[in-house]
Specification:
Blueprint: H1 6-9, E1 15-16, H2 29-38, H3 44-65, E2 70-72, H4 80-88, H5 102-109, E3 120-122, E4 129-131, E5 134-135, H6 146-157, E6 162-167, H7 169-175, E7 177-178, H8 188-204, E8 209-213, H9 225-236, E9 242-246, H10 256-261, E10 266-270, H11 278-284, E11 290-296, H12 306-320, E12 325-329, H13 348-351, H14 357-368, H15 372-387, H16 394-401, H17 414-425, H18 442-452, H19 458-479, H20 496-499, E13 503-506, E14 513-516, E15 519-521, E16 525-531, H21 538-546, E17 553-557, H22 559-564, H23 574-594, E18 599-603, H24 618-633, E19 641-646, H25 655-660, E20 665-668, H26 676-684, E21 689-692, H27 705-718, H28 737-757
Parallel strand pairs: 1-12, 2-6, 5-7, 6-8, 8-9, 9-10, 10-11, 11-12, 17-18, 18-19, 19-20, 20-21
Antiparallel strand pairs: 3-4, 13-16, 14-15
Helix pairs in contact: 2-3, 8-9, 11-12, 16-23, 18-19, 23-24, 27-28
The protein binds glutamine and zinc ion.
Zinc ion (ZN) binds near residues 435, 605 and 647.
Catalytic activity: 5-methyltetrahydropteroyltri-L-glutamate + L-homocysteine = tetrahydropteroyltri-L-glutamate + L-methionine
Organism: Terriglobus roseus
Cofactor: Zn(2+)
Length: about 750
């Protein structure tokens, strides 16, 4: 592949920026420091020192790599949104007032016996979770720049001038929830005053540029937001501090005229998710605005195609001049692991296609200098990836190409299936079941670790699993549950377990990414076509079935959840990968059925997470996502009952798609919201069976029978008795056995009450 000709036309290196660096540390030092502090084993000074050391390391390595605009205030002890609230002094009133101490900071972030923490939700469509601001009418704003100024000074002491990162006022307001229905934008005047004060203090500190993140501009703005943007930035741009208005994760789209009109000194756009926006953005900029081109993907682990990125940069330079173009990652690098040095086991060829945070920074620098050696090396790596036979599985490709409409639907409609299934399964009214996992005790984890590290033979480990399954079955029988499960003791994680069986997936040793607080995940990497060489769950499910005369439910993770919680390939559409996973699961479902499992649950908690940021793109996604589920589940006999399970979020607005899954039974998280969700199911006229969770599994609290009966009565007001299943909100893996037994007994009692008082009996 030819080296881009722009090499000679831009002898001057472009300026480079980074938008945020992963903060955990190569060895997850921050995680261990935090957890040590929380458990009382490490002092606050110790935690502060670890944090300071990490920040220094990260700044120094960015400088050494040649980044011009190095971020500060991208570091956080827990969450950058919480930090933003502390900065403007708008933390929720229920945690007290005055300067935020370390204890109060963590009280807002983490549940304790005394107090429920702030709510957590996903940061746009990433797997990072932020703490949701609580906007109440009386909230006061009290600026506290301690953290941000401290970071600016710390870096300066190392000889590094940084570009501090702020979450912009509109993104911060709109990502929060209005308490008691408060219109969040009514707080705008207070927010503007606070942000002006922050900028004034940064100016006094001689800060030149600030990165002001407004990713909300890449979404459909609610009413009033555009005006609020204009009002806010008319005030903020009065500051001598230059603002880099930063957007990411999607195109600015119809918000482009607004974004440009705000008059910030620069704009950052994501040209990985939305390369087509470069031309309109360049055309729209005013005569002095600087453009930061996010052309190295900040949230996935693949190498950049330099030829594509360079042509975008060349187009920007041709229109604006080199002095007005900055090269950057598309978003903060928070969403990728720190570096590839920690990986000794990755296949060498695959490794050549991967770039983690540090390697991405090197890409930014190489792109900015139009370095011909780097360009040539990149072209070789890109060509190698394109040519690799290991990523293509011809059998899978032809299977996909041969799919027909009937592969995506059950043979007969639910209304006809249900009678057959009732006869087959012989279940009572209000059948009781669980969501799959039973307590993953220290003992279970100990055996898994011993097996993983070779201290326990496979025979020993499997003997242990069989005994755990047998215990679990006996306990469920003694509780009186109607549909049993094997307990999922063999699974460490609902995605990793399956990924380990599937072709096309690989794992890192140290590829940790922050999920929230000190919690990190190590997502599998999907690098090639997905196929299932052998059954994944049949052995354990079949064993469990052999132990009891009651129906045994098989448990699988759905195609969208496996897709969403992995790093996905970027060389084929996500839809194709989802359908490949679905085909693998379809074989698993059929094998379970052949082994005598007549109820199979395919969990899709992440269905909603995959939604694009813009409404206009929802239908396309939902179409192929629903098809993936149906492809996985529709290959069974009419008498085989398909369940699904969803949790973590609201589903009201995607109900038609949930109905389109055509699962015979869906279990959902509803206990904490007092069955609120069911009203939507009623209004929609949801036809199939539903198991609304009757107890919250997130706490050790054991709900009484009366409480669960009351919830079921609420359900009965909106659903037909034949539609209702009785189950907890989610899996029980984080609970202890005692509380689990107690709660499930109460739950079965509640079902018995309902049966005896039900007129339909
Ligand atoms: N079957 C899984 C379990 O019970 C479901 C987990 C989930 O919904 N997150 O653990
Ligand atoms: Zn769940």
């Amino acid at each position: 592949m030819a080296v881009p000709t722009v090499t000679t036309s831009h002898p001057n290196k472009l300026k480079t920026a980074n938008l945020g660096f992963p903060r955990m540390g190569q060895q997850r030092e921050l995680k261990f420091a935090l957890e040590g502090f929380w458990s009382g084993k490490r002092s606050a000074e110790d935690l502060a020192l670890t944090a300071k050391t990490l920040r220094a390391e990260h700044w120094l390595l960015q400088r050494a790599a040649g980044i011009d605009f190095i971020p500060s205030n991208d570091f956080s002890l827990y969450d950058q949104v919480l930090d933003a609230l502390v900065l403007i002094g708008a933390t929720p009133e229920r945690f007290g007032a005055g300067p935020v101490t370390l204890d109060r900071y963590f009280a807002m972030a983490r549940n304790s016996q005394e107090q429920t923490a702030m709510e957590m939700t996903k940061w746009f469509d990433t797997n990072y979770h932020y703490l949701v601001p609580e906007w109440s009418a009386g909230i006061t704003f009290q600026v506290d720049t301690t953290k941000i100024l401290c970071e600016v000074r710390e870096a300066r002491a190392l000889g590094i001038e940084t570009r501090p990162v702020l979450i912009g006022p509109l993104t911060l307001l709109l990502l929060g929830k209005g308490v008691d229905g408060l219109d969040r934008l009514t707080l705008l005047p207070k927010a503007i005053t606070a942000y002006r004060e922050v900028l004034a203090q940064l100016n006094a500190e001689c800060v030149d540029w600030v990165q002001i993140d407004e990713p909300i501009l890449a979404t459909d703005l609610p009413d009033g937001a555009a005006d609020a943007f204009r009002t806010a930035y008319a005030a903020l741009t009065k500051s001598p501090v230059k603002l880099m208005l930063t957007t990411y994760f999607d195109a600015i789209g119809d918000n482009l005229p607004l974004a440009v009109s705000l008059g910030t000194a620069g704009i950052h756009v994501d040209t990985v998710r939305a390369p087509e926006q470069l031309t309109p953005v360049v055309a729209a900029l005013n005569a002095t605005q600087v453009l930061s081109v996010g052309c190295v993907e900040g949230r996935n682990i693949w190498l950049t195609n330099f030829s594509h990125a360079s042509s975008l940069l060349s187009a920007a330079v041709a229109a604006l001049g080199a002095h007005r173009v900055i090269v950057a990652p598309s978003s903060s690098l928070l969403h990728v692991p720190q570096n590839l040095r920690g990986e000794s086991k990755l296949p060498a060829r695959l490794r050549g296609w991967l770039r983690f945070a540090e390697e991405k920074i090197a890409e930014v620098v190489a792109l900015a200098s139009f370095d011909s050696d780097a360009g040539a090396a990149n072209a070789v790596a890109i060509a190698d990836r394109e040519a690799a036979e290991t990523t293509v599985n011809p059998a899978v490709r032809s299977q996909l190409a041969a799919l027909v409409a009937s592969d995506f639907s059950r043979a007969i409609p639910y209304a006809d299936r249900t009678a057959i299934q009732r006869a087959e399964l012989g279940l009572p009214l209000f059948p009781t079941t669980t969501i799959g996992s039973f307590p993953q005790t220290a003992n279970v984890r100990k055996h898994r670790a011993a097996h993983k590290h070779g201290h326990e033979t496979t025979e020993e480990y499997e003997a242990f699993l069989r005994s755990a399954i047998e215990d679990c079955v006996r306990q469920q029988e003694s509780i009186g549950l109607d549909v049993l499960v094997h307990g999922e003791f063999e699974r460490n994680d609902m995605v990793e377990y399956f990924a380990a069986f599937l072709d096309g997936f690989t794992f890192t040793e140290n590829g940790w990414v922050q999920s929230y607080g000190s919690r990190c995940v190590k997502p599998p990497i999907i690098y090639g076509d997905v196929a299932r060489p052998e059954p994944m769950t049949v052995k354990w499910t079949e064993y469990a079935r052999s132990l009891t005369s009651r129906p045994m439910k098989g448990m699988l993770t759905g195609p969208i959840t496996i897709l969403q919680w992995s790093f996905v390939r970027n060389d084929i559409p996500r839809q194709q990968t989802a359908w490949q996973i679905a085909l693998a699961l379809r074989d698993e479902v059929r094998d379970l059925e052949a082994a005598g499992i007549r109820i199979i649950q395919v969990d899709e908690p992440a269905l909603r997470e995959g939604l694009p940021l813009r409404r206009a793109d929802w239908d396309r996604y939902l179409g192929w996502a629903v098809d993936a589920f149906k492809l996985a589940t529709s290959g069974v006999d009419n008498a085989t009952q398909i369940h699904t399970h969803m949790c973590y979020c609201e589903f009201d607005d995607i109900l038609p798609s949930i109905a389109a899954l055509d699962a015979d039974v869906i279990s959902m998280e509803t206990a904490r919201s007092q069955m609120e969700l069911l009203e939507a199911f009623r209004a929609y006229g949801y036809p199939n069976e539903i198991g609304p969770g009757v107890y919250d599994i997130h706490s050790p609290r054991v709900p009484g029978t009366a409480e669960m009966t009351r919830l079921l009565d609420l359900a009965l007001q909106v659903l037909k008795p034949e539609q209702i299943w009785v189950n907890p909100d989610c899996g029980l893996k984080t609970r202890g056995w005692d509380e689990t037994m107690h709660a499930l007994r109460n739950m079965c009692q509640a079902a018995l009450h309902l049966r005896s008082s039900s007129q339909v009996m």
